[in-house]
Amino acid sequence: MSKEDIMFKTRVGIIGATGYSGMELLKxxxxxxxxxLTLVSSxxxxxTKITDYxxxxxxxYDTLLFSDIILEEIKxxxxxxxxxxxxxxxKDLAPKLYHLGxxxxxxxxxxxxxxxxxxxxxxxxxxPYPDLLxxxxxxxxxxxxxxxxxESFISNPGCYPTSILLxxxxxxxxxxxxxxxxxxxxxxxxxxGKKVNPLYLFSEMNENFLxxxxxxxxxHIPEIEKYLxxxxxxxxxxxxxxxxxxxxxxxxxxxxxxGLSEKEASIGTQSLIQAYKNEKFVKVLxxxxxxxxxxxxxxQCHIGFQYDKRTGCLILVSVIDNLLKxxxxxAVQNMNLMLGIDEGEGLC
Length: 348
Known about the structure:
The protein is α/β, with parallel strands linked by helices. 30% of the residues lie in helices and 20% in strands.
């Protein structure tokens, strides 16, 4: 590799690299032609070679060790930092690095909502940087990519919200809808992260299927309602009920819009088809319904639809890989936009 090639590589760090999203980031960034991985942070694995923890990585990373979170070291070694941490970590650290001049992409939920009160209610903590909440860009590339280029701080959408906002936004931009949207979403177990919980043991999840955080209690509800309302121009209210599947990865969201005429449903679905006809990572199926197996290990979202004439209900089905289009893949897509390089670099 020439000195000229190295010169134009963005130096990238990952904080929280040992989680599932961090692992996927490492896989993508290690094959990305326009970045140099210069720092990988994990307090629990401090001073461990990352190739010992992740044997799939190339030997060229043998000299890279997990480090503690030291702001001056991160500033010295990185131009851009990903936070692949549980909610509650980035809220304290990301603004400090941002104010030191680094570019930030936060995969957690720490900068998705609007106010201190939102975080007290939905995440049970007091947000220390409320002024940043409406300054940080929430970037779902297929919806607002034009805003991402040149940005310095991006909040990456959540996994469930990605699977819901992509199918609904083009439709609600083009039809008026005042009823609560009914959303039945199902996720693989990696969506819960690596936290220790008896519920996620193999013997508990295998051949099992369960609902959780139903009846208006899931923390992704305000995120979905906020951006669906903002992007559609109408007040969105959702009845969102998530479930856990006995799968490693993948999300399938089934979305119901009751009370639509056949004409309204046709306008909505044609808007959906047109919105994504030239998109690299979103595919609308005009025949058949999408399957999780078709999108796992990809950065794609597949969307299908059918109209129930008998009940006057438009039904949407979307599938994504929760760790890629729902987290790390989309974060790299956002990084590419932020840096002004090809959006699909490292992802295709």
